[in-house]
Write a structure and sequence with these properties.
Rossmann fold; five-stranded mixed beta sheet; globular
Length: 266
C-alpha cells in the first residue's frame, strides 16, 4: 500500500521515518507534500529518490492513502483532492471534520473513506460499541500545561492569559464543537471523541490550564445503557507541546490494521 504524508511536523516526520524503516510490512512511503521543500529534504534525505515530493494538489496521484498532518487552514487543500480520487484519507486534524461535513457526503459519492486514528485519546472501542446502543452523556476533561494552550483563538478572543499561573484555571466549558472552534490546534481529541459517540453538540468539554501537570491529560466519562466507564490518559508531549508522543504511533497502528493478518479491537 502506497502511503502519502502531507506535512512533516513532529507527527508526520515520526510516521515517515517509521515507514522508511520498514516498521510495517506491506506499507511504503511513496510521497510527501510540504510547504518547505528544502527543510523536507534535510530531514528526509530519501526525498527525490525513493520518495516523491509533491504538492497538496498532486500527492493523491502517487498514493493509495494520505495521512494529513497539516495546520488547520490547509485541511481542505489536501482533503478534497484525496477524497475526489476515491482514496483513503487519514486526517489528524479531526476538529476540521466538524466544520467540513460536506467532505463526508463527497466521500460517499467518490467511494473514498475517511479514517480518523485514535491519536492521543483512549477508549474509542468502548465509545463506538456503546454508540451501537444508547449513550446518555459523554464528558471530556482536558488538562494541559499552560504552554500547550498559549495562542489558542478562544483565549485570545476572551483575553484569557495562561502565563505564570500558580493554580489550575478552567479556560473553557462547553460543547466539543465550540471547543474545536476555539482551540483548533489542541482539541482534535474532543472532535474525534464526539464523532465516535453522540456528536459534537452533545459531548461536554472542559479545558484546564494546569501548571501542576507535565503531561496532556484527558479524562472521559461515559454514561450509556450498556455500561458506565471513566478513563484517563496522560500523554507525554512531543516536540510540539500541543501534541502528545502517542499520536504518531497511533497513526502507525491504524495503518498496520489495514494490512495486518490479525487486527484486534473494534
Amino acid at each position: 500500500m502506497r502511503i502519502g504524508i502531507a506535512g512533516l511536523g513532529a507527527v508526520g516526520l515520526d510516521v515517515a521515518k517509521r515507514l522508511i524503516d520498514g516498521d510495517v510490512p506491506g506499507l511504503a512511503l511513496a510521497a510527501v507534500a510540504v510547504r518547505d521543500a528544502d527543510k523536507a529534504r534535510r530531514v528526509l534525505p530519501q526525498i527525490g529518490d525513493a520518495i516523491a515530493l509533491r504538492t497538496l494538489e498532486t500527492i493523491a496521484n502517487e498514493c493509495d492513502l494520505v495521512v494529513e498532518c497539516l495546520p488547520p487552514a490547509l485541511f481542505r487543500d489536501i482533503a478534497i483532492p484525496v477524497i475526489d480520487k476515491g482514496l483513503l484519507f487519514m486526517p489528524l486534524s479531526a476538529a476540521q471534520l466538524l466544520h467540513n461535513g460536506d467532505l463526508v457526503e463527497r466521500a460517499k459519492k467518490t467511494g473514498a473513506r475517511i479514517l480518523v486514528p485514535s491519536g492521543a485519546l483512549i477508549g474509542f472501542d468502548a465509545v463506538r460499541a456503546a454508540a451501537e446502543g444508547t449513550i446518555h452523556s459523554v464528558n471530556l476533561v482536558t488538562r494541559k500545561p499552560p504552554k500547550g494552550l498559549e495562542g489558542a483563538p478562544y483565549l485570545v478572543e476572551h483575553k484569557i492569559s495562561v502565563r505564570d499561573l500558580k493554580a489550575p484555571l478552567k479556560v473553557f466549558d462547553g460543547t466539543a464543537r465550540e471547543g474545536a472552534t476555539g482551540f483548533p490546534a489542541n482539541l482534535n481529541v474532543a472532535a474525534a471523541l464526539s464523532l465516535a459517540g453522540i456528536g459534537p453538540d452533545r459531548t461536554h468539554l472542559e479545558i484546564w490550564a494546569d501548571p501542576s501537570v507535565t503531561r496532556n491529560t484527558h479524562t472521559i466519562t461515559v454514561e450509556a445503557d450498556a455500561a458506565r466507564f471513566t478513563m484517563t490518559i496522560e500523554n507525554v508531549p512531543s516536540d510540539n507541546p500541543r501534541t502528545g508522543k502517542l499520536v504518531a504511533p497511533s497513526v502507525v497502528a491504524a495503518l498496520r490494521g489495514l494490512v495486518s493478518e490479525l487486527k484486534v479491537g473494534t
